[in-house]
TrEMBL record:
It comes from Marinithermus hydrothermalis (strain DSM 14884 / JCM 11576 / T1). Residues 69-175 form the Rieske domain. The keyword Ribonucleoprotein does not apply. This is Rieske (2Fe-2S) iron-sulfur domain protein. The chain crosses the membrane at residues 12-28. It holds the Pfam family Rieske. It comes from the Bacteria.
Length: 188
């Protein structure tokens, strides 16, 4: 036997529904910020110009970095070269020196990410406690890990930063192409 909803019923049903919706949304958002990140695949390269990025001695130790731009059919791509303590898929190893080249265009909404070498400052600014330097986005505080090939590790972005193909010759590192698709300009 059913009975009609009274005004008194609505007094608790409506706030309960709103609260359930809020906590559901908040839970989903938390899972997305912390966990729903795409893995970094073997790269598919698109050939491009051969551009000198840095001499090897410019990045003497792990976590040294250098910003550069790379010409693409969409225009100059802001990019960063990072020296890593170990090899990474899609990166470059020259003896015991390991590097990765990454786009600096955030895969969330396209802001420019910055290299964050100071972990304490990064924890305060991004609310993200990293175990190594990362690339942080000032727009919505997304973070990407160069040691994982540019994987999104915190915040709204879920896609990794596209990589630049690197080559070395006679002590110089060159960029010779970029990963496809070039997120977020090209959506897969
Ligand atoms: S544009 Fe980078 S986190 Fe939103």
């Amino acid at each position: 036997m059913s009975r009609k909803l009274t005004r008194r019923d609505l007094i608790w049903i409506l706030p309960s529904g709103v609260a359930a919706g809020f906590f559901g949304w908040f839970g989903w958002r938390t899972v997305r910020i912390l966990f729903l990140k795409e893995r970094v695949p073997e790269p598919t390269w698109r050939d491009g110009e051969r551009v000198e990025v840095a001499r090897l001695e410019e990045l003497e130790a792990p976590w040294a970095f250098k910003y550069f731009t790379y010409p693409t059919r969409f225009g100059e791509l802001k990019s960063v070269l990072v020296r890593l303590p170990g090899p990474v898929v899609g990166g470059l190893s020259v003896g015991e020196a390991h590097f990765v080249g990454l786009s600096r265009i955030c895969t969330h909404l396209g802001c420019t990410v910055n290299y964050v070498p100071d972990l304490e400052a990064g924890a305060i600014a991004y609310n993200y406690r990293a175990s190594n330097p990362f690339l942080g986005c000032p727009c919505h505080f997304g973070a990407f890990d160069p040691a994982q090939g540019g994987k999104a590790v915190f915040g709204p972005p879920t896609l990794p930063l596209p990589r630049l193909r690197l080559e070395a010759a006679e002590g110089v590192i060159y960029a010779t192409g970029h990963e496809e698709p070039l997120y977020p300009i090209e959506r897969g």
